[in-house]
């Protein structure tokens, strides 16, 4: 579980792209910032606060960055540290959100929100979506986290990867269900009809939040994407492009069966193929090659 501090994503196009640094051949930070801007990507999720990256982002108008746990601890304890990191999302242990929020408020940053990113395995059950429930060992923590998020009107951020469910069990997970291309409902859950796995995964979290007393808490997407290579026949440029295009259109327009019409803040994964990640699949989630050529037409 990790925590992000960030300026709220404004406007009607709340789509960002994750900028990973697990590569030894990636372009310079200034080139990366230029590529974000030329591609029209206004929001960036950064996993570590490298000084050269932060310097390149200065004055760019691009929203979002991250810093490691110890920095959020400093923010929680010292308003001067909060001032230094005011507009950056920050990862941290769960115990820091409330004091961090108070320090940020002390320097007048009411527009900064604090939210938590949790993985899919935070649920002990997720099928059907209405059965979604948090694991018993974190349920009490999630009540506390949800309360903090509700107070600040911040979304709970989750990682959603239909690809992994599909590739691990293609006989049970139809390709069109995983990729937003089914034309008939694949799963019926009471009155809710599911045409895609993404909605089912997100609604399992909505159901889990309902069970702990937070039915109206917003959910956002911290990561979602599809690899272009590494696991044939499930990975190819066409599959990746189709999923990501459909993902973008879906989160901007449709909501989910349990939350229809709700636009979700979403970070797509990832900006570049990263050659130091473990395994061929993990290395090939990028929209761009390290030389900045597009892996497939998208932006």
From TrEMBL:
EC class: hydrolase
EC number(s) stated in the UniProt entry for this protein: 3.2.1.39
Gene Ontology MF: a single term: glucan endo-1,3-beta-D-glucosidase activity
InterPro entries: GH (IPR017853), Glyco_hydro_17 (IPR000490), Glyco_hydro_17_plant (IPR044965)
Superkingdom, taxonomy of origin: Eukaryota
Pfam families: Glyco_hydro_17
Catalytic activity: Hydrolysis of (1->3)-beta-D-glucosidic linkages in (1->3)-beta-D-glucans
UniProt keyword annotations, A-Z: Glycosidase, Hydrolase
Biological processes per GO annotation: carbohydrate metabolic process
Similarity section: Belongs to the glycosyl hydrolase 17 family.
PANTHER family with a match to the protein in the record: GLUCAN ENDO-1,3-BETA-GLUCOSIDASE BG1-RELATED-RELATED
Protein name, entry field: glucan endo-1,3-beta-D-glucosidase
Organism annotation: Salix koriyanagi
């Amino acid at each position: 579980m990790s925590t992000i501090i960030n300026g709220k994503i404004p406007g009607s196009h709340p789509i960002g792209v994750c900028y990973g640094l697990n590569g030894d051949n990636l372009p310079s930070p200034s080139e990366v910032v230029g590529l974000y801007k030329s591609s029209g990507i206004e929001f960036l999720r950064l996993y570590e606060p490298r000084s050269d990256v932060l310097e390149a982002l200065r004055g760019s108008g691009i929203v979002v960055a991250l810093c490691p746990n110890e920095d959020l601890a400093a923010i929680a304890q010292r308003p001067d540290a909060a001032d230094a990191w005011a507009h950056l999302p920050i990862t941290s242990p769960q115990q820091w959100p409330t004091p961090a929020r108070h320090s940020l408020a002390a320097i007048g940053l009411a527009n900064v929100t604090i939210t938590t990113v949790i993985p899919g395995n935070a649920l002990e059950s997720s099928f059907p979506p209405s059965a979604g429930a948090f694991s018993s060992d974190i349920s009490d923590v999630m009540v506390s986290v949800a309360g903090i998020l509700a107070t600040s009107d911040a979304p709970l951020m989750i990682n959603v990867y239909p690809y992994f469910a599909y590739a691990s069990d293609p006989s049970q997970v139809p390709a069109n269900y995983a990729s937003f291309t089914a034309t008939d409902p694949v799963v019926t859950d009471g009155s809710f009809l599911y045409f895609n796995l993404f909605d089912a995964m997100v609604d399992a979290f909505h159901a889990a939040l309902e069970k702990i007393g937070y039915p109206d808490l917003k959910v956002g997407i911290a990561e979602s994407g599809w690899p272009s290579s590494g696991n044939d026949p499930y990975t190819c440029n066409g599959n990746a492009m189709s999923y990501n295009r459909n993902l973008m259109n879906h989160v901007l327009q449709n909501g989910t069966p349990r939350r229809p019409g709700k636009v979700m803040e979403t970070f797509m994964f990832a900006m570049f193929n990263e050659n130091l990640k473990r395994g061929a699949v993990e290395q090939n989630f990028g929209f761009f090659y390290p030389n900045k050529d597009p892996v497939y037409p998208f932006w």
